[in-house]
Specification:
Layout: E1 2-13, H1 16-26, E2 31-42, E3 52-59, E4 62-73, E5 76-85, H2 96-102, H3 104-114, E6 120-134, E7 140-147, E8 153-160, H4 164-177, E9 182-184, H5 189-197
Antiparallel strand pairs: 1-5, 1-8, 1-9, 2-3, 2-6, 3-4, 4-5, 6-7, 7-8
Length: 200
């Protein structure tokens, strides 16, 4: 399991036309793939809370269990991330025991953070199409098209960074040069997922 601080610049694109324009302007992606995100919470709904996520992500023939605890504000996400390869079965939804078996280290991190062991329940899933580009400035730019259970879609750009102020300026300048409309992202994928379930 890896435990690390993750800092990302996240900008929301102003609609599908802007997403398609950006993809055309960026050219052929280095990689493109589908992510299926399954989300979980405690039985009382209080954990992971408003600024965390408990996720099992299926992609590229494998699965990763992730716990993120942090915050997203004005397009800058700063979180502590616990991530490990999933070792349990992939049938959804899994039982609480299966989650402890498949994502043991992440569950232990949650137990330490909240001071108790608890069961998780499956909330649902959403599908994300990710394209990876490398900009001339050296940014690793992830362009996402996310589809929610109610059929709605939204679009965003992410850059993981050790220099958030610098890389935010570079990313915004890149989008400005391409005349791409964007705003700072104010909600994580999980928060938006909940909004589309009518749970916020």
């Amino acid at each position: 399991m890896s435990i690390r601080r993750e800092v990302e610049v996240k900008l929301r694109l102003e609609g599908r036309a802007q997403y398609e324009r950006l993809c055309r302007e960026m050219g052929t992606p280095e990689d493109a793939w589908e992510q299926v995100n399954h989300y979980f919470r405690s039985e009382d709904g209080r954990i992971p809370g408003e600024e965390g996520v408990i996720r099992l992500r299926l992609e590229k023939g494998g699965a990763v269990f992730t716990v993120k605890l942090g915050a997203l504000k004005d397009g800058l996400a700063d979180s502590q991330e616990y991530e490990e390869a999933w070792s349990g079965p992939l049938e959804m939804p899994p039982s609480s025991n299966t989650i402890w078996e498949g994502g043991y280290q992440g569950m232990k991190a949650l137990e330490q953070r909240f001071g108790k062991r608890f069961a998780l329940v499956w909330v649902g899933k959403m599908v994300n199409q990710r394209r990876l580009y490398r900009s001339d400035e050296g940014l690793c730019v992830e362009v996402d098209a996310s589809r929610y259970p109610d059929g709605a879609e939204d679009y965003e750009v992410e850059v993981e960074t050790d220099e958030p102020e610098r890389d935010r300026r570079l990313l915004e300048a890149l989008l400005d040069r391409m005349s791409i409309g964007f705003v700072p992202q104010q909600a994580t994928k999980y928060q938006r997922f909940l909004q589309h379930l009518g749970r916020t």
